[in-house]
Design a protein that fits this description.
The protein folds into two domains: 142 residues, 3-Layer(aba) Sandwich (Aminopeptidase), CATH 3.40.630; 131 residues, Gcn5-related N-acetyltransferase (GNAT) (Aminopeptidase), CATH 3.40.630.30. The relative contact order is 0.16. β9 and β10 form a beta hairpin. By secondary structure, it is of the alpha+beta class.
């Protein structure tokens, strides 16, 4: 594989390719959102001969930097698949790359890809035939929840500004704390998401309001032919009105209206089978999502030790 370059600026025609293929997670707008929300540095790996490549976002992890290809979904720009040949080439350019390792997400619902790398496996759920989906294919409980929310005083609106972002973060923070999860996203991230949604036709930050209060929120995006449920949360005081159900219903319908072929409910933690069942009851199917890791430096070994210790004590 010749003609490969690594750069901190996008190669010629990058934005046009992302726009044509509707690849939000590789677009300059998305990458700028990550950079303005976290300690992230972006690099572009491009093969001029094959006219394909990817954006790698290097997140700070203590004294280390860990890269993600096309965060959070993966994939490349251009008509190509990730292969072992790609990996050999990336290893050859390791001195130019910032991260100690690159994590490469491979969806359960894309082309079958098996790489000669270690990987972590999680259950991923998606509505695979979105055009034919309707509320009738969901469980009776979900149908009742949606109809109950529609009869309530909940009002569905698009988020309007920074103040909404602050409130959304508070709901997200409380949800993570309640579930004893890991806080991965910042207040700035949600504020910037809303700002980007106001200028992009591929993102919606949906709110369910009641009594001038945000009862719940959902973030839904389009990337290529797929709709993605990125985030959601409910304020516990309004849980009885089922805001999460009607928000997800609206999100699915919106991606249907865009002509998406499927709706991805994303991966679930391997130990949360109840969450997988909840997603499947929306008409989803579950497969194995793999996140491969391509080590680039020996420091990745030290990081893995520190990561195992953190997980053991947290």
């Amino acid at each position: 594989m010749s003609g490969v370059s690594v750069s901190s600026t996008p190669p010629a025609g990058w934005s046009e390719k992302c726009a044509t293929e509707m690849l939000l997670f590789h677009s300059a707008d998305w990458l700028e959102l990550l950079e303005s929300s976290f300690d992230v540095q972006t690099q572009y790996i491009w093969d001029d001969r094959a006219q394909c490549g990817g954006a790698v976002s290097s997140f700070s992890a203590g004294p280390f930097r860990l890269g993600y290809l096309g965060f959070p979904f993966g994939g490349v720009v251009g008509n190509a698949r990730i292969t072992d040949e790609f990996l050999r080439c990336w290893r050859e350019h390791r001195s130019e790359l910032l991260p100690m390792a690159i994590r490469i997400p491979i969806s359960a619902f894309g082309e079958s890809t098996n790489l000669d790398l270690a990987y972590a496996s999680t259950p991923e759920t998606a509505i695979v035939d979105l055009p034919s989906w309707s509320l009738d294919v969901t469980s009776g409980n979900h149908r009742r929840d949606v109809k109950k929310a529609m009869r309530s005083d909940l009002e569905l609106v698009d988020a309007g500004g920074a103040a909404d972002g602050v409130e959304i973060f508070r709901i997200y923070f409380d949800t993570v704390k309640r579930q004893r999860g890991v806080l991965r996203y910042s207040e700035a991230y949600f504020v910037n998401l809303i700002k980007l949604a106001q200028s992009s036709s591929h993102i919606r930050v949906l709110l369910a309001r009641m009594e001038n209060t945000i009862a719940g929120f959902t973030v839904v995006v389009r990337h290529g032919p797929v709709g993605f449920y990125l985030h959601g949360g409910t304020r516990m005081a309004f849980r009885q009105y089922q805001p999460s159900a009607v928000l997800l219903y609206e999100a699915i319908q919106w991606t249907q209206s865009l002509g998406c072929s499927s709706f991805n409910l994303m991966s679930s933690p391997a130990d949360q089978q109840s969450l997988v069942w909840y997603k499947e009851k929306w008409g989803g199917k579950t497969g194995e999502h793999r996140t491969y890791t391509l080590p680039l430096r020996t420091s990745y070994g030290f990081f893995r030790v520190a990561e195992r210790i953190y997980r053991a004590v947290s």
